[in-house]
Specification:
The protein contains 14 helices and 33 strands. Helix 3 runs parallel beside helix 4, helix 5 packs parallel to helix 7 and helix 12 runs parallel beside helix 14.
């Protein structure tokens, strides 16, 4: 495929600049609009600028199915289409007359009281365009991602803006110690409750939060703070909306998508791209480049990669690791080739860019560079870990197996980098529970104030919340991800505003009166020093700063010296640090020996039981721990310590 692109398009670099030809492009003499719509019988450009007259600006079609019209400048030299005016393409299609938002539209809005979105011609005057001031930060050695949704990032029940996120949330992310922010729901989506995963307009940033220039200002501010900005990009499927999306765009079922059942994802209720189509490749490759070029994003988290790579989409499929599951008839070769192309494009043009792939299948070669025959991702999302924690939280503490925890955290391919997380946005949605809520349930509503007595459920919950997050970060990968608010144990789930749904069979799914009350982030809880949430937030910040100081996540040295099912203790080394986890619910151990590689003096550098983090201060932070020679747990040295129940402590070699 790469050879064909080189032969017919002049190379991937030119092929991926489709937005310079298709859609709206302004020149010194006027505006050219082109649209690929091979199924249309006729087409014209309509909008506010020509009073929606379908006979005013009729388009002509070339042999590749691309329609085109040129609109010369007005007599005074101004644009024939004013900035901010509504536009659509009017087509006579096999299924009738259809007015569609241009596929390459760069901005679209929903007018008050209207359901379908309107395409907007976005071409502000020079003085209103945002000019980037700050260079992209260099790729950090370890990736620590703060997953965020701009719309629901306010403490108030409303849709937040790019500007408010820039001013209020970015400094918080920096303060917490993360070095990257991953923005969800950037590509325009008409259904807010889809969390941004049912994209309607792929080249347009969500207008709910502001303008394209507002988004650019946000990204530039992040760069000023030294934060990478990753975009949660959706190329695995598309909204099935006909009125304002790509579905049935030219009146045919198979323009951008596979026709028939193969082009429909029954679980997601969305359309599936045909990655073997030349123009679909142009569209998607150009889309990835557009966000990097125009908005200065630093990379992507690719959504739903498992669904792309297999015709069964990973549904009802338990991958065992047998290579026939990866390289068999169910593999969508065209989709895998697309993923190789887009990774090759991104890393070729932007060597510092980061790509993270969401894959649950364990596809071999996923993290191998394209030039070496791999799919080309920098990181794989280590998704099994979050599922394991939910599985364990449904069990009694007595039924947790230390070996099971360690195996899940370390079960990844050699030399393949992973981004690990204890929980993401998936676990925070309505109908599910966050780790904090699994642990503390309704006690969170009444017993999180420090001036009130705690409960056994709260004490257990806060202790395990810290331990789960630290062992996940300490053992699970080379990158770490946290969804906003979970750093302090955000209570309750996310429930997007929604009205009643009336199903065809007569059933009614109740809504929530379009309330935003559960679609926000209560950052005030984490900041309130009189609440127990504050200690949890302080611990998360300390975890990030620990990695910043010691770089343990990317250290080549990792050794698990103990996973004791009787004591419920896990001990491992990563870099120059020794991590000790006591998961026992009641038993603390005095004079407990742990193995270590290097001889010398060790000191506590992080203690989950510290009063600062909502603990009981059972460990002396100033104590020195001197190693002794002699094999212990297969380590050449060891030292004695006190390990309280439900506590995680990190020791560093200081002398």
């Amino acid at each position: 495929m790469r050879e064909e692109i080189d032969k017919y398009e002049g190379g991937l670099e030119i092929f991926s600049r489709g937005y310079e030809k298709l859609g709206f492009n302004r020149s010194t003499t006027g505006v050219t609009y082109r649209e690929w719509a091979p199924g249309a019988k006729s087409a014209s450009l309509i909008g506010d600028f020509n009073n929606w007259n379908p006979n005013a600006d009729v388009m002509t079609q070339n042999e590749f199915g691309v329609w085109e019209v040129f609109l010369p400048n007005n007599a005074d030299g101004s644009s024939p289409i004013p900035h901010g005016s509504r536009v659509k393409i009017h087509m006579d299609t096999p299924t009738g007359i259809k007015d569609s938002i241009p596929a390459w539209i760069r901005f679209s809005v929903q007018a008050p009281g209207e359901i379908p979105y309107n395409g907007i011609y976005y071409d502000p005057p020079e003085e209103e365009r945002y000019v980037f001031q700050h260079p992209r930060p260099k790729r950090p050695k370890s990736l620590r991602i703060y997953e965020a949704h701009v719309g629901m990032s306010s403490t108030e029940p409303k849709i937040n803006t790019y500007a408010e996120f820039r001013d209020d949330v970015l400094p918080r992310i920096k303060m917490l110690g993360y070095n990257a922010v991953q923005l969800m729901a950037i590509q325009e989506h008409s259904y807010y409750a889809s969390f941004g995963y049912h994209v309607t307009n792929f080249f347009a940033p969500s207008s709910r939060c502001g303008t394209p220039d507002d988004l650019k200002s946000l990204i530039d501010k992040a760069h000023e703070l030294g934060l990478l900005v990753l975009m949660d990009i959706v190329h695995s499927h598309a909204s099935n909306n006909v009125l304002d999306g790509l579905n049935m765009f030219d009146g045919t079922d198979g323009q951008y998508f596979h026709s028939g059942a193969r082009g429909y994802h029954w679980m997601w209720d969305s359309r599936l791209f045909n990655y073997g189509s030349w123009e679909v490749l142009r569209f998607l490759l150009s889309n990835a480049r557009w966000w990097l070029d125009e908005y200065k994003f630093d990379g992507f988290r690719f959504d739903g990669v498992t669904s792309m790579m297999y015709t069964h989409h990973g549904l009802q499929m338990a991958f065992t690791g047998n290579y026939d599951e990866y390289f068999g008839l169910a593999t969508d070769v065209d989709a895998v080739v697309y993923l190789m192309l887009v990774n090759d494009l991104i890393h070729g043009l932007f060597p510092e860019a980061v790509t993270v792939g969401e894959d649950v299948s364990g596809m071999p070669t996923f993290g191998i560079p394209v030039q070496d025959g791999g799919v080309g991702f920098d990181y794989r999302l280590h998704m099994a870990v979050a599922d394991k924690w939910i599985e364990l939280l449904k069990k009694r503490d007595e039924d947790w197996q230390m070996g099971d925890i360690v195996h899940t955290l370390t079960n990844r391919r050699w030399s393949e980098k992973c981004v690990v997380y204890a929980e993401s946005h998936d676990q925070a949605l309505v109908g599910d529970k966050t780790i904090a809520f699994w642990l503390m349930d309704k006690d969170m509503y009444d017993f999180m104030a420090l001036d009130r007595p705690s409960t056994p459920l709260i004490d257990r919950g806060i202790a395990l919340h810290k331990m789960i997050r630290l062992i996940t970060m300490g053992l699970g990968g080379e990158g770490y991800l946290n969804f906003m608010g979970n750093e302090f144990g955000h209570p309750e789930w996310i429930d997007f505003p929604r009205g009643e749904q009336h199903l065809p069979d007569g059933r009614v799914i109740p809504g929530n009166n379009n309330s935003y009350d559960k679609c926000r982030r209560r950052f005030d809880l984490g900041d309130a020093e009189y609440l127990r949430y504050h200690g949890m937030q302080q611990f998360d910040q300390a975890m990030q700063h620990l990695e910043d100081r010691y770089g343990f996540m990317t250290s080549q040295h990792q050794y698990i010296s103990r996973k004791d099912e009787g004591d419920r203790v896990i001990v491992f080394e990563r870099g120059d640090l020794v991590f000790v986890f006591n998961f026992h619910w009641t038993t603390s151990y005095s004079d407990y020996r742990v193995g270590c590689l290097k001889p010398g003096k060790y000191k506590v550098v992080l203690d989950s039981d510290s009063k600062l983090f909502g603990g009981f201060n059972r460990i002396d932070p100033d104590a020195d721990y001197f190693s002794m020679e002699g094999m212990y747990d297969n380590r050449p040295n060891s030292f004695m310590l006190y390990t309280p129940c439900r506590t995680a402590v990190v020791y560093a070699l200081v002398d």
